[in-house]
C-alpha cells in the first residue's frame, strides 16, 4: 500500500511539472536582433568621421579642397533609407591642392568672399532630401533641396548606403551648378570674352557620411 501511494505521488509530481515548466520555444537560442532589422532607426552623422571633398574646374585646370560637416541625420525604415539631411560649415573651406602658402591664402580668401560663398553672411549650406528611390542592394537615386547663400534649388544624385551593426556609411557625388546660387564669378554663361580665365559653372562634392545609431 505504501509503495502504491509513493508511485501515485511521483506520477502526480511529473504530471504537474509538465504543466508548470515553460515549453522550450527556442527564445533563449534566438540571436540578438540586428540593428539593421529594426523597423525604424535614426542615425546621427559623425562630424569627425564624415568628410566632404570639393572640386572646382576651370579651363586651365582645377582646384580641390575640403569642407566640414556640422550636423546631419539619416533615417531608415526596414533597413531602407527614407530621409536624410546634413549641414556644411562654409567658413571651414580648405584648399588642399595649392602648397604655396601665399597662393593658397589668396584662393581661399577669394572663395570665402562675396564673389563666391560669402561665408560671413552665409556660414552654412544645407541639403535635405525630398524624395528617395530605392534601386536595391544599397543603391539609391536621391532628390533634395540644396541651400547655398540662402538660395534653394533641387538637386538629384546617386548614392550608396551600407549598414553594419550600429554604423551607417553613405556615399554620394553631387554635381552643383554654382550660377543657380548667384555664384557667377568667371562664368562664361554671364561674362563673354574671358577666354582661358573662365571657371566652369559646375563643381562637385564627394560626400562620405558616417553615422551612428541614436
UniProtKB/TrEMBL annotation:
Q: One short Pfam family name for this protein?
A: YceI
Domain of life of the organism in this record? Bacteria
Q: Which keywords does this chain's UniProt record carry?
A: Signal
Family matches, as InterPro entries? Lipid/polyisoprenoid-bd_YceI, TTHA0802/YceI-like_sf
Query: Which SUPFAM superfamilies does the annotation name?
Result: YceI-like
The segment(s) forming the Lipid/polyisoprenoid-binding YceI-like domain are 42-212
| Position of the signal peptide | 1-23
Q: What is this protein called?
A: Polyisoprenoid-binding protein YceI
Give the originating organism: Chitinophaga terrae
